[in-house]
Design brief:
CATH architecture of the largest domain: 3-Layer(aba) Sandwich
CATH topology of the largest domain: Rossmann fold
Radius of gyration: 31 Å
Distance between the termini: 83 Å
CATH superfamily of the largest domain: P-loop containing nucleotide triphosphate hydrolases
Largest sheet: 5 strands, parallel
Order of helices and strands: HHHHHEHEHHEHEHHEHH
Number of helices: 13
Number of strands: 5
Number of domains: 2
């Protein structure tokens, strides 16, 4: 690449005006490398375009993760795959690819408390964000309260539009909320707005036959289930409770630490001028230790 003799003092300003910050930051370094390696102008420009695209992707991922509300520790790396049911383990890689988001489909995860539902869906959410998808993680109770406040302030449409910016919304613990009529209505409105347009990932400790506890009205319950299930993958988290197992492990470790030694103390060899202690005293010492 031949040396360009024209003054370039205004180039960084122009690049920033064009919203090309990575061009501005790397153009001189790339020019020097191009001189050493004999790049053509096309190769030089292509290199800077690749740098700009990669930096934009990285910044987009950072923004997505920051806005997502995903717990930073609940990632795929921290998920114990050996504890997942076989069917879930088979489906997980496909879900992480995000094809269901492109098709505006849903993922429903059922299981008793402590089975790892939240970690599973958050791990999927992290993978989607790393692939450039916009994701929001929210507790069902918090979502309902947000929508209820928006409705009372006559801003429900605006709130729903804000949620619509996210390609995938993870609604966690929907089974723990038992709403009054107004709360049920805003939740149903939210589910209906996303039907066949945007993806939902929902966790619940209640099977569908128990969802009348959430929506109260049988007709509304049936309509909500119909919309959610129409295009959905359903995962069942079975097996023992993670939290119970962790508690048992901690308790066992604590008992081992606190328990007195089962071994009797070794008697030291007695010198002739040090007579042995009486048996009763030895027993008291043993109990004290």
């Amino acid at each position: 690449m031949s040396q360009d003799r024209r003054p370039t003092t205004g180039l960084p300003v122009l690049l920033r005006a064009l919203k090309l910050p990575s061009f501005a930051a790397h153009h001189e370094e790339a020019a020097q490398r191009g001189e050493r390696e004999g790049w053509s102008f096309s190769e030089y420009l292509n290199h800077l375009c690749e740098v700009e695209v990669e930096e934009r992707r990285r910044r987009r991922v950072e923004r997505n993760l920051k806005r997502s509300g995903l717990p930073p520790d609940k990632t795929l790396e921290g998920l114990d795959l050996s504890r997942l049911p076989e069917k879930v383990r088979r489906q997980l890689p496909v879900l992480c690819e995000g094809g269901f988001v492109e098709r505006a489909e849903n993922v429903l995860v059922f299981g008793l408390p402590g089975r790892g539902k939240t970690h599973l869906v958050c791990a999927i959410g992290h993978e989607l964000a790393l692939r450039g998808r916009t994701v929001l993680h929210t507790r069902a109770f918090a979502l309902v309260q947000e929508l209820l406040v928006a409705k009372r302030d006559l801003k429900l449409e605006k709130a729903l539009a804000g949620l619509d910016r996210f390609e995938c919304v993870i609604v966690d613990d929907i089974g723990y909320i038992q709403q009054d009529r107004e709360e049920m209505e805003v939740l149903f409105t939210f589910l209906s707005e996303r039907y066949e347009r945007r993806s939902l990932v929902i966790t619940s400790n209640l099977v569908f036959s128990q969802w009348d506890r959430i929506f109260k009205d049988p007709m509304t319950t049936a309509a909500a289930i119909d919309r959610i299930v129409h295009h959905a993958s359903i995962l069942e988290m079975t097996g023992p409770s993670y939290r119970m197992d962790e508690a048992k492990t901690r308790n066992a470790a604590g008992l081992q630490t606190d328990a007195p030694s089962s071994k009797k103390p070794r008697r030291e060899s007695k010198e002739p001028d040090e007579p042995a202690a009486p048996d009763r005293e030895a027993k008291e010492v043993s109990r004290a230790t």
